[in-house]
Amino acid sequence: MFDIVNKNKTAVTVVLGLVSLGLVVGLGLSGYTAMDDESTPYLAKVGGYTITDRHLEEAIGNQAIPDNMKPMVLEQLVRQRLLQDRAVALKLAAPDQLVRNAIMQIPAFQVDGKFNDQRYQEILASQQMSPAIFEEKMRQDIVMRQLMDGFVQTGFVSNAAMQQLNQLMAEKREVATATISAEQYLPQVTVSDAEVKKYFDAHQADYKKPEMVKVEYLLLSQSDLAAAQSVSDAEVEKYFAEHRQELAKEERRASHILIAVDKSAKAADKTAARKQAEEILAQVKANPARFAELAKQKSQDPGSAVNGGDLGFFAKGMMVKPFDEVAFKLNKGEISNLVETDFGFHIIQLNDVKSTSLADVKPSVVEKLKQQKTQSQFPAQIEKFTELVYQQSNSLKPTADALKLAVKQSDWLTRTNAADPLLGNPKMIEAIYSDDVLKAKHNSEALELAPGQWVSARVLEYKPASTQTLLEVTPMITAKLKQEKALALAQADGAKKLAALQAGQVENLAWGQAQAFTRVAVEGVSDANLKAIFKANTSKLPAYVGGAVPGRGYVIYKVIKAIDAPALSAEDQFRMQENLAKMYGQVEMAAFIDAIRKDVKVKYQTKPKAE
């Protein structure tokens, strides 16, 4: 029963990402909201469920990703919603025990290689997620993995296809390279004042300075407020006493031997399994010291058998009910009689019992109390912050003094460039460039730019958009035009030298050391040139190919030798077949999702907002 994690490693990894990375979260039904009001903004609607900016922000979490990646995250959320709908339609399910077993194997929840309930609770609390929500997300991800594995793990690839791909990917060309650089032609070119002015007149828009501002601003942060809270030992002790049942949970460490038999098995099979288990039980009772040895030899739970049946510490309710009830009645060192569950027959040995002490949970209790104090204080802080920046609109200092905040100052900002992500937030930019803030020099309204972060800004200096003068930009334009002329000379000379080499003439070129190229992308070599290298006639070597390199000059490749692909070993063939099968399976998975789209309406309303 405990080998389920080995079959669902991907699912466990994905769900663990919810906790440790904060990336692509909120995948379950609870992460979406049914919405019939078309006037309410949303990013996408999948059937009867909507995905909003909030869901996208939850999916991204604390990760800093470029704006152009946000549509990719949105599309992933849409696909996962489609798969969940189909999983529900197919009535796929993940039993409670399967979910619990998977959770217990997640390294982030383990201490010394064993599941630790306290650590589990602390990590979930730090992500503001309850065990029930986390377990439901885990369940949904395992269900989706059941649906996806049928595609991803079943692709078939023929030997002929593998041999062909091996030839394409592994054959090589030994190549020497010569570069005709534009820099060597710079001394030959000149640029006149008239050419500079002509270029400037035609490209004045390229030399405009955007409008810029310098601002001062205040940040009211819930996390900063929490960090500043003080919690006394008396408060910690009181909280522990009031929540002892919740915090000081008893944990038990047990080992087991499992003789597996499905709950729907025939009576004869169950009888045979019981008889086998009874024989092992007799051996264990006769010599309890052999428990671990017999577990390694006889237990049919591969996840624990290798450890002598050791299941580590677990809290009440983590195991299936019959197993759980017996394990929490045993005395330390005691061995149970046979325990029947849906997985088969178990023999349980209780190894240890421990309870959580105040010292064990004190850090998490302190953090909990800080958060509680902050949650009770922060709404009043927000209200005061909002009122003061509005009422004392000509300065941020009164607000800073009243709330003990530091007034910060920015460097020059444009509408598209801000060193501080908070000031680059679209809502903040809109506020800064409003007439009331920009022209009247008032404080901006208090804006919530992220959960628990409120900001108000005030403009200190402003520079309107302007066009640079010809005098200012002459050095830049001169350098640009010289580079363009030198580049044209280099490319023309390179093409001429290549033609001469292909005609059998000798050219005095500085060839670099020969390298072995494959069809896989080679750094610094364009796709077109790489294709030309492998198309070169290898019946008469050396062969020469080349081409212009934008911004650099011209490159010539001397193909010296053609190297055939080595024969595939049995191990390489197996690995390639496995990888190709997965690739083909993923293609089939994409086709499956496209097919679901025909049944489940997907509507995109607005683009993901930039942060």
Description:
This protein is 47% helix and 18% strand. The chain has 23 helices and 20 strands. The strands form six sheets. Strands 1-3-2-20 form a four-stranded antiparallel β-sheet. A hairpin with a 3-residue loop joins β18 (543-549) and β19. The model is unreliable at 1-37 and 607-611 (pLDDT under 50).
Measured on Cα atoms, how large is the radius of gyration?
A: 34 Å
User: Helical content, roughly?
Assistant: 40-55%
Mean pLDDT: 83
Bin the strand percentage: 15-25%
For the secondary structure, the number of strands is 20
Class computed from helices, strands and strand pairing:
alpha+beta
Distance between the termini: 45 Å
What descriptors fit this protein?
611 residues, alpha+beta, four-stranded antiparallel beta sheet, disordered N terminus, disordered C terminus
What's a quick, concise take on this entry?
With 611 residues, the chain is of the alpha+beta class.
Topology of this structure?
Blueprint: H1 4-7, H2 9-20, E1 33-34, E2 44-46, E3 49-51, H3 53-60, H4 70-89, H5 96-104, E4 110-111, E5 114-115, H6 117-126, H7 131-152, H8 159-170, E6 172-181, H9 193-202, E7 208-209, E8 212-221, H10 222-227, H11 233-242, H12 244-247, E9 250-260, H13 267-286, H14 291-298, H15 302-305, E10 310-315, H16 321-327, E11 339-341, E12 344-355, H17 358-391, H18 397-403, E13 408-409, H19 426-432, H20 435-438, E14 447-450, E15 453-463, E16 466-467, H21 470-502, E17 515-517, H22 527-535, E18 543-549, E19 553-563, H23 570-599, E20 602-604
Antiparallel strand pairs: 1-3, 2-3, 2-20, 4-5, 6-17, 6-19, 7-16, 8-13, 8-15, 9-10, 9-12, 11-12, 14-15, 18-19
Helix pairs in contact: 2-7, 4-7, 5-7, 7-23, 9-21, 11-17
